[in-house]
Each structure stands twice: as structure tokens, then as C-alpha cells.
Design a protein that fits this description.
- The longest helix is centred in the middle third of the chain and has 11 residues.
- The protein has 1 helix and 21 strands.
- It is mostly beta strands and 276 residues long.
């Protein structure tokens, strides 16, 4: 797959700092990293619905207080929203019923995240989960290497039940640079026997503070070998954070992407990416 096209498809008014996407039936589900709402955008009506993730939901939450939901995963008729773990108040996982959008459970993943950090020799300042995928009997957590140690890691939790003490392993992957800045994971999904991931180049050594964006890539990882099979730069100015599959054809894959502009503007830009 050597060619691609990228186009701005539409805007969703009412969502700030979009960080995760999932396409299901005739709706696009969206999370924002500074919001405590879960969003459903209906294509036919262009209607935006909001579902509360907490007792007192809000948008554009102050940075030091935000839950920082960065990863959206679909698991056994549920949506699972994961906090990044980059600060102490970003360790929650909220599970929603995919049909009713009601909260099924809220889990504190602090202990799990600390196990991952200890295993990989990461301090808290280098831990930043940006993508989570459930596949078979395992969960895969993608750590964005935008801290000073620069470690892009895929943690494998070898159980479907996140509440237990199952085995954890990890793989460190070296991602390419854009303009001298190392890219780092911003999202990932499973397509057949592969992971497709987004990674952005951002001039910062902090999982907390934003930096100047130099662009984004898409890449592919073989799940069996956990090796990167290809990467492709798709932008030299966008920070793409959300990724969901639109079509899987013989010689073409198409995805919907969202851009995190790291501002308070209540507008999510949705892009269509095709790779051949």
C-alpha cells in the first residue's frame, strides 16, 4: 500500500478535542479528551447526541482536572472508554451499553497502569495510553512515547477481564521521524490479523504539555510477530488522534480520522483516509 488520499469530510459542531472514534451502523461515536460526555453523531439526521459519563458532566474541562479519555474500544456489545493514565485523575475506564448508552461500570485502572509502568521501567511522566484494542482473549494498550524516554510500547494484557492479575507483556517499537521529531502512537484499531495505528510528531518531551505539531503517519503492525509492516506519512501539519475503519476492500482500506487541535473550539473535523 504505497498510495493514499486524505480529505476533510465534514465538521461536527459541539465536540472539542476529539480523541477517539468508532463507526457502527449509521452513527459515528466520538470521545473528547477534555469532556465527560460520550457523543453519537447520526449520519442521516446530522444530529449530535450526548451521553453523560459522570454525575456532573462538562465540556472543555480544565486541563489539570480532565479525565483525558484518549482510547475508545468496542468489546462484547459495550463501548469502553479509557483514560490515558498520564496523571492520577486519568485512570478511569468507563463501560457503556452499546445499545442504551447507559453506564455499565466504572473501573479504576490505577493498579493495572502501575503494573505496566513497573514492567517496562517507565516513570509516570512517560506513561500515556492513547489506544486500546480488545482481540481474542487479550487487551492491547498503546503507550505514546512522547515523554522524555520516547518509548512507544504495546502492552498485552493476557485476559479479557481487566480486574484480575493476569500476565502482562510488552513490545517496544521504533516509529519514524517527521522533520527530526519522532512520531508517537495516538490511536490503534484491529483489522483482520493486523493493527493499524496513527502516530503524530509533536515537539514536546511531556505527556502533559502540548507542542508544535509536525505531522502524522499511519502504520501497520502484524499481530502475530508484533513487527511494523509499513508506515506512511499522511500529513505534515495535522495531529490525528482518532481512527476507525470505514471500508475494507481487496485493494483499498478506508478510515475515518479525527484531529485534536488542542484548543477549546467546539468543532470536530472528520477526515476520510484511503490507502491503496
Amino acid at each position: 500500500m504505497n498510495s493514499f488520499t486524505l480529505e476533510l469530510l465534514f465538521h461536527i459542531i459541539g465536540i472539542s478535542s476529539a480523541s477517539g472514534l468508532f463507526l457502527k451502523d449509521n452513527s459515528l461515536y466520538v470521545i473528547g479528551d477534555n469532556s465527560s460526555y460520550f457523543y453519537e453523531y447520526e449520519f442521516k439526521s446530522s444530529n449530535l447526541k450526548r451521553y453523560a459519563l459522570s454525575e456532573n458532566p462538562a465540556e472543555n474541562i480544565e486541563k489539570k482536572l480532565k479525565p483525558d479519555f484518549e482510547a475508545l474500544s468496542y468489546y462484547e456489545s459495550s463501548f469502553c472508554l479509557f483514560g490515558s493514565g498520564s496523571t492520577e485523575n486519568r485512570n478511569k475506564m468507563v463501560q457503556l451499553n452499546a445499545n442504551t448508552k447507559e453506564r455499565v461500570s466504572v473501573q479504576d485502572l490505577s493498579a493495572l497502569y502501575k503494573r505496566m509502568q513497573a514492567l517496562a521501567g517507565l516513570d509516570a511522566e512517560n506513561f500515556n495510553i492513547e489506544g486500546v484494542v480488545c482481540s481474542g482473549n487479550a487487551w492491547y494498550f498503546f503507550n505514546r512515547g512522547n515523554g522524555h524516554s520516547g518509548k512507544n510500547l504495546v502492552f498485552t494484557f493476557h485476559s479479557k477481564e481487566l480486574a484480575n492479575d493476569s500476565k502482562i507483556t510488552y513490545t517496544e517499537l521504533k516509529l519514524p521521524e517527521i522533520k527530526g521529531i519522532r512520531t508517537s502512537f495516538t490511536d490503534a484499531i484491529k483489522v483482520e490479523d493486523k493493527f493499524y495505528f496513527l502516530a503524530a510528531a509533536e515537539n514536546t518531551n511531556s505527556t502533559y504539555n502540548d507542542g508544535e505539531v509536525s505531522g502524522s503517519i499511519i502504520g501497520c503492525i502484524d499481530i502475530e510477530t508484533m513487527k511494523i509492516t509499513f508506515t506512511k506519512k499522511i500529513s505534515d501539519r495535522h495531529k490525528f488522534e482518532g481512527l476507525t475503519l470505514k471500508h475494507n476492500k481487496k485493494n483499498e482500506l478506508s478510515f475515518l480520522l479525527c484531529e485534536d487541535k488542542d484548543n477549546d473550539q467546539l468543532q470536530a473535523d472528520i477526515y476520510l483516509l484511503k490507502i491503496y
